[in-house]
Amino acid sequence: MALTPKQNYLNAINHKETERTPVFPVDCAGSGFGAFPGPWFEKGPMGGGYDGFGVRWITPASGGGAPIPAPNEYILDSETVANWKNIVKFPDLEAVDWKAMAEAEFQMMPFDREQTALEFGCGNGVFERLAALMGFEEALISLLEEPEACYELMEAITDYKIEFAKKVKEFYNPDIFNNYDDIATERGLFMSPDTYRKLIKPHHKRLCAAVRELGMIPIQHTCGLCESLIEDIIDTGAAAWSSVQPINDIVRLQKEYGDKIAIIGGYNSNGAPGRVDAPMEVMLAEVHRCLDTYGQYPSYVIFPFVTVNSLNPNDMLAVMKPLLGEAVKYSHELGRKK
Description:
Elements: H1 5-13, E1 28-32, H2 40-43, E2 49-50, E3 56-58, E4 68-69, H3 98-108, E5 117-122, H4 126-134, H5 136-145, H6 147-171, E6 176-180, E7 184-185, E8 188-189, H7 193-213, E9 217-221, H8 230-235, E10 240-244, H9 250-257, E11 262-265, H10 280-293, E12 300-302, H11 313-337
Parallel strand pairs: 1-5, 5-6, 6-9, 9-10, 10-11, 11-12
Antiparallel strand pairs: 2-3, 3-4, 7-8
Helix pairs in contact: 4-5, 4-6, 5-6, 6-7, 10-11
């Protein structure tokens, strides 16, 4: 009996037999951050503004409208982080109309739950929230100069994230909970592996355990060159590593760790296919390269993703629609040849 797109997607994440390479976000719908800015109290309202922590977010067109903290308007710095308990205010999750928020998202992206899996993207993992509160430079300085204070703050952020996950389970009931926490650039990690393991990894691990206990599949979104931490990501309990860019040796990772963690990504969003002026034939060729190269290994999900210089969602849709359509079409063709 043929698998539904949902079954096929979840099988890939859970290291079970698949009929073809799944495609995100077609076979698995996205909600929360990644599909939209996400809950306003995490990354500000649509179009920019203040989040529930008091951080102001802006949405530049150069990033396709993705929210970023307003530069030089930070709440903490390396000199005040030790006093974070008297400065940082957490959002009141009980004051949020979760039902209305979830219903509004589902109306914007109608899908069949029997046929399509659902992922909730949880923006601002512990390091990203630290950086949102004080900026990347001050956050990295603080990890070195005030490690105990940073650990305690990230511990409190994780407590908040677990309560957040409980609300997500109740009102969205997704199959997958994606923890967004970028800790690297395309050249390497923001911090040493040892700093990650001592100060950040314990919080990732605790959140993954809580997510599993709630009946959702935890995955870790981390852009950049961080293949050196693959065993750590596995150890946190994440079922998949999302948005894996080809600056990492994806084939090696699939060969060595493919039975322990799923790989989601592969599309060269930082290279020629990811340029805002990339011809469609170049982008479609990259879709074929990903499926030909990585799709021959199990537990792989292709995620074609490009940005546009526009705040209009329709402009992004105009570029993404043919890419996703070709990914689905070609993955079916390759699946039939197995």
